[in-house]
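Forum: Protein Structure Q&A
Topic: Joint prediction for protein chains with partners

I've read a bunch of threads here and the consensus seems to be that you should model interacting components together rather than docking separate models afterwards. I'd like to see that in practice. Below is the full input, 1648 residues plus whatever partners are listed. Could one of the regulars post the assembled result?
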Amino acid sequence: MESKRRRKNPEAMPKKGILERLRDGVVIGDGGFVFQLEKRGYVKAGPWTPEATCENPEAVRQLHRDFLRAGSDVMQALTFYASDTKLENRGNKAGQTFSGKAINAAACKLAREVADEGDALVAGGLSQTPTYLSGRSKKEVQVDFQKQVQVFVDNNLDFLICEYFEHVEEIEWAIEVCKATGKPVAATMCIGPEGDMHGVSAGDCAVRMVKAGADIVGVNCHFDPSISLHTVRLMKEGLERAGLKAFLMSQPLAYHTPDAGKQGFIDLPEFPFALESRICTRWDIQKYAREAYELGVRYIGGCCGFEPYHVRAISEELMKERGKKSMATEKHDLWGGGLLMHTKPWVRARASREYWENLRPGSGRPYCPSMSQPDEWGVTAGSQVLMQHSEATTEKEFKELANHAVKTRSRK
Amino acid sequence: MESKRRRKNPEAMPKKGILERLRDGVVIGDGGFVFQLEKRGYVKAGPWTPEATCENPEAVRQLHRDFLRAGSDVMQALTFYASDTKLENRGNKAGQTFSGKAINAAACKLAREVADEGDALVAGGLSQTPTYLSGRSKKEVQVDFQKQVQVFVDNNLDFLICEYFEHVEEIEWAIEVCKATGKPVAATMCIGPEGDMHGVSAGDCAVRMVKAGADIVGVNCHFDPSISLHTVRLMKEGLERAGLKAFLMSQPLAYHTPDAGKQGFIDLPEFPFALESRICTRWDIQKYAREAYELGVRYIGGCCGFEPYHVRAISEELMKERGKKSMATEKHDLWGGGLLMHTKPWVRARASREYWENLRPGSGRPYCPSMSQPDEWGVTAGSQVLMQHSEATTEKEFKELANHAVKTRSRK
Amino acid sequence: MESKRRRKNPEAMPKKGILERLRDGVVIGDGGFVFQLEKRGYVKAGPWTPEATCENPEAVRQLHRDFLRAGSDVMQALTFYASDTKLENRGNKAGQTFSGKAINAAACKLAREVADEGDALVAGGLSQTPTYLSGRSKKEVQVDFQKQVQVFVDNNLDFLICEYFEHVEEIEWAIEVCKATGKPVAATMCIGPEGDMHGVSAGDCAVRMVKAGADIVGVNCHFDPSISLHTVRLMKEGLERAGLKAFLMSQPLAYHTPDAGKQGFIDLPEFPFALESRICTRWDIQKYAREAYELGVRYIGGCCGFEPYHVRAISEELMKERGKKSMATEKHDLWGGGLLMHTKPWVRARASREYWENLRPGSGRPYCPSMSQPDEWGVTAGSQVLMQHSEATTEKEFKELANHAVKTRSRK
Amino acid sequence: MESKRRRKNPEAMPKKGILERLRDGVVIGDGGFVFQLEKRGYVKAGPWTPEATCENPEAVRQLHRDFLRAGSDVMQALTFYASDTKLENRGNKAGQTFSGKAINAAACKLAREVADEGDALVAGGLSQTPTYLSGRSKKEVQVDFQKQVQVFVDNNLDFLICEYFEHVEEIEWAIEVCKATGKPVAATMCIGPEGDMHGVSAGDCAVRMVKAGADIVGVNCHFDPSISLHTVRLMKEGLERAGLKAFLMSQPLAYHTPDAGKQGFIDLPEFPFALESRICTRWDIQKYAREAYELGVRYIGGCCGFEPYHVRAISEELMKERGKKSMATEKHDLWGGGLLMHTKPWVRARASREYWENLRPGSGRPYCPSMSQPDEWGVTAGSQVLMQHSEATTEKEFKELANHAVKTRSRK
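Posted by a regular:
Agreed with the consensus. Here's the joint model:
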């Protein structure tokens, strides 16, 4: 069965590159690997490091395949946080068994394998480093990046993504390293409309990323689709004012975060183990896909919380624009059409676009609020409290943190 | 890697049976296959039939493996709704490609394969039939059951489960067929505290299931953990009054349904495509596992909405009672302990049981209510409107249904 | 101006009595005096005693007038909790300045004065006593009642109401005392569908009240309109089973209490200073009036939270049945019709029944839940902790109570 | 009794003026007359005109007295919308019975009468006119104002308030007319942080009001306390930038309006008949009073929704700063202290500041959202659709409006 998936002779017909695809139409990204693999049991929340590429390759492969079937045009190698420094940060023992290099190489191989079951490209990714947060020099930070990028080059990935950066300065350093490879570079920050953690506006962040060499810019993670598109709009306006051009990209959360503060969903009290009631429906995501497309975003994907069915929702909303449907749509008649086959007549009555677009879903949680007060510690890169180290958090440290948190909350 | 998972010589050391395990401790079930595979892109909502066992075996195998790692002691073969009548009901075309027999046989093989990667048992399941809902005779309904059971016997499954029945009469007929095989029989109805659809109380349902031959009785699906345990308590009391003994079992939804009516979550307007905000957190499930255990339930699992991490939560709550932990717990320090490795200090401050147990999560949906008004059509087995057929629903029929639904709602 | 209100010669045309009115149609009660006067600044929350009849007669008179204009057919003299024991309970100093007798006499005079500005009757009321809660004898309790009733007789009130009793035994004692006067007696308990605090069912409470001599029975206070009518329905069924006849009466809260436990809104954490978000709209009350009427309730009024405009809503809903409208309806075109005179066109667009009946009002409180966990101390008459005394609560006692409350809540 | 309220010889000891009081401390305003009198049954929602000063003087007098007792230092004569044009607008018949002059004169008399029962001042008020909204000239609009101001001068009121203006241009015209009398002038707009309806920022509005002659500036109505203080902060900053000085004033709604758009609560679907669940608690108002005081606001009052107990909450929060307490505080032990006299021990346990400050009140409305989508018609002064006339709205006009409203909403 699996052999049927593989293209007979992939070398014979080289795939169209990312920039060409963006020029000609819309590219669908994938979803949130670490969150989804955490729920499936292969990634640990807290460190969020991706040693699963070595430990449980079949689980990573299957998730790639789920996204490929859902319509993803890009398989992003699972290299999130796979720097040696992060693998050994604060008591994380992943780095003792596997080197960053091994994890990254396995990630590249898995992504390529599944990408070649379809017409997808493979991307390698860099993200923000403990090194930068601890206040180290540009040179030290770029050494971290260079080590990862080398693996991507060795595995001949199709393009590179710098993502999940809170400080524009750090992503500029990452873009530089990527740009030097000659491969196309996408760059997305995890910021909201208020801009980066050092006070640089979203529009200026976009301008600086393009000037540093990014071909594609936008946002990922930290905020819900609606807030993320607001930020992309500010970036678009910033680029227009500066007379610059770049493709736009958005890979938001699949969690509703109207109450998030400047640092996004990390600061919400529900992060990361009680976000369930915030999960977007497939209809929320279709709305997002339409709004993104109308804003001019051409690389439309998702981040934490995005499951395969969310990506399928993007592909279904843009089916006409793309002139094709995803494999998984075989298992999903549009707008709930499959319900026409349901046994109960009142469920069949729900098989319509009008029904699902107008529904305001109940939470089933009458003792819970609709919004939460985010933690607001206002800490950013260079702060002493963000100095990273390999020792685990002690109980004493934890108690101090917990006390501080209680005090912060009760001041509200 | 995968070869390491298989037990060298499984025949050499026969596994302990289900009744023996229940006598000695607590057995953890698995989660909701069709809902999870729908999100992963392999099952169609509406018919909910499991042809994926033939079409995408690796996806089914991987989900079994996720649950095995999470702590499931039972691999339930994916045979839900795999009767020939259901595979061809109301325009479902699954039955044209694969016979019920082929789907069931593949399901048994996949479940056994993964079960033998650990110490799990394999169960085959029967569920309610269109035949019964259409008002056919006991004989006709039992023919449907017999065809499925034969496959389970041929594949030498460890025990049988009759589940997802709304009418005690039909589950009695199913239990009889199962009992005749000589294998242990578990029987769970998808009912709430109000009893079955024909007005038989939960306590009486339990009594009748035991008298029909069930070794294990309880509820599955349709209601949230708290309501489900309430129903199990009523069953327990019914058995005590009747002087009967049986093991208790619960496999509820992982959705909060305080507002559900008699027919459970099917009638909630969010079913099945907007249930996200109702999904239970892992902490909700730990609470459920504890309460189930204290009530005397010894077969504790889940149904629709239960993902691998929910099953892991059961295994973590009962770690002491079971004297072991699940494989996936390697990737999950208890009570959020992994957060001690998080970069941001205020997230590290959340690494405690006290924090997560007391959190009332916000929905991020300020324009949505906390509860919904369920549809209440009051239709049950034998009603003309439930007569099943192989023709697809026509547009005219759909319009009539939709109009009726609107009227029903506005009467409230 | 005020003189115009008074009937020229009231003696010339004696008013129709309460029982006659109930036989011929529907009688509208008044609203919640102590809660409304607390907001206006004349009654203290906690003791809730009505010394305002002596201290600020013009405020009490004006509230009577507001209700008369709103459509009340009965002016209930403000004698709630006006027993000498209550006036000096737990540090209350009201009793040092005014005797219970003086307060009651002033109340009668004020009620009569306003009643004669229209066609209203005047009722005197008894409610549950600290004496009973403290576990004293029937004789002692009836002495308390007798003292109040004597004032009502001296002032020749039209009928008597025993209301706000949690124990059917105590209300039987009160009814006996009232019955002896020869005046018609109404009797309402502040109970929900679970029955009285000693476990007597709602149906049996109704039967016992009628047997003790009540002409009119029902419920008041403690629960919202919907729950209260549920209780009245149980009472009605109880009377039917017993072959008894009586008029039905309901005077519920104007607060939504879906989450209240057995003791009603007293146990909700919001009682009494944060109930605002639970206040019923006028449309909620119109719905209540219709449902009450259809159930057969003929004495329809309100209790705590009912303001004049809520009573007007009853009179407007039943305008046709009553063949008249209230004075205050001059200032209230039906179903929001007055909005047709609003400046802004989109507000004029709201002038319809359809609009207001279908609106689901937002709370403007996204950080608050929709339901609360009630305190559940399970304490009732005869419990040591309910022993009443004239000393004020000490700080030590308060701390013990507060600690106990915190512990009770965190056990949930 | 009432005679005791009057000061023996008011002329003998002239009261301190408003500016002097503001210089020396904090002045407490009153609450929302038309909303409160609508609930009591004396004002019609829609036109909101104050003919009650002639029709039911005792009701107006009593409400003044309630506010005086609650701590109001200012009795604002009930002259809201009492212009001849408004009294005959869109089918309002109030103007046929009473002239604007008569209504205003009666209002002045009633306010003075109650003010002299204490040490309160009397203010006369102007508000926005249909004349301006219809696009008429400055001269025509000022004629409207002049007619009202003449009554205030004839009755020798203590100072004048221009309030409830959405356009800074119109309030400038009003201030000019008031300033010419030589009396102190307060000026508050019903705007939020986005500024006036023609796009003038809040800061610039403040500057223009002061330049036009206002001694006191700020906001009233349309938004909740928190949003209103945000706007006042913007005004304060605008004045500081311009080097201007004025006293600051805030009289917000007592309704939570986090979801309001630019035109405030008028646009919320709940306006005006389903705002109950948005009503602020007394604790919300204490918080408001503290924040207002800390911002430097010295005239602190309320508008629609403010009831006497809300004003009392201001006076209690600022008891120390003012060196006195309100009369109604006799009936309100601070921070729920009166509950120490409650019969039930668990209610006594709520008698503390900590309890009430931390409570997040439940709405009791699980089927309702926490926020609503405001109507957004974007219509402002000069728009054809705001042209006012004396004819009533026809049914045809209403249907067009209602259809338009439905379309506007479904576009969201």
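The first strand of chain D starts at residue 27 and ends at 28.
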